[in-house]
Amino acid sequence: MAVPELAPRRTFGGIVAVWVLAALIAIVVGIFATPDWRAAWLGVGLGGCLIAAFATQLWSGRSQGFTERVAAGVLGAALVMGVISLGFGLASLVPG
């Protein structure tokens, strides 16, 4: 028999935290990495976001919907990093 949780923890904050981490990583990579290595470092940063998503969701202590929350965190991180890297890519096309 399953015991219902009396006060379940909110899990959306952990997902958003991974997205914010992804934005910070993408900005740092876009500023400090050379254009030749930018895509490789973004991949490393996305791997770090995957580990952060697992750690954040394990810390919450809820097993229900674990894979969905981790997937939402990583997918959102990939989208955030993609949009920011798109901005840096378009900025590199502008001369000057």
Can you offer a commentary on this structure?
The protein has 96 residues and is mostly helical. It has 3 helices and no strands. The chain has helices spanning 12-32, 38-60, 66-93. Helix 1 runs antiparallel to helix 2, helix 1 runs parallel beside helix 3 and helix 2 (38-60) packs antiparallel against helix 3 (66-93). The protein starts with 11 loop residues before the first helix and ends with a helix.
Q: What labels describe this entry?
A:
single chain, 96 residues, mainly alpha, 75% helix, elongated
Shape: elongated
What order do the helices and strands follow? Answer: HHH
Query: What is the CA–CA distance across the termini?
Result: 67 Å
Ranges where pLDDT stays below 50 over 5 or more residues in a row are none
Number of helices: 3
**Helical proportion?**
over 70%
Largest sheet: none
Q: Count the beta strands.
A: 0
Task: Output mean pLDDT.
Answer: 91
Question: What amount of the residues lies in strands?
Answer: under 5%
The chain-level structural class is mainly alpha
Radius of gyration: 17 Å
Secondary structure layout:
Elements: H1 12-32, H2 38-60, H3 66-93
Summarize the structure.
The chain has three helices and no strands. The protein is mainly α and 96 residues long.
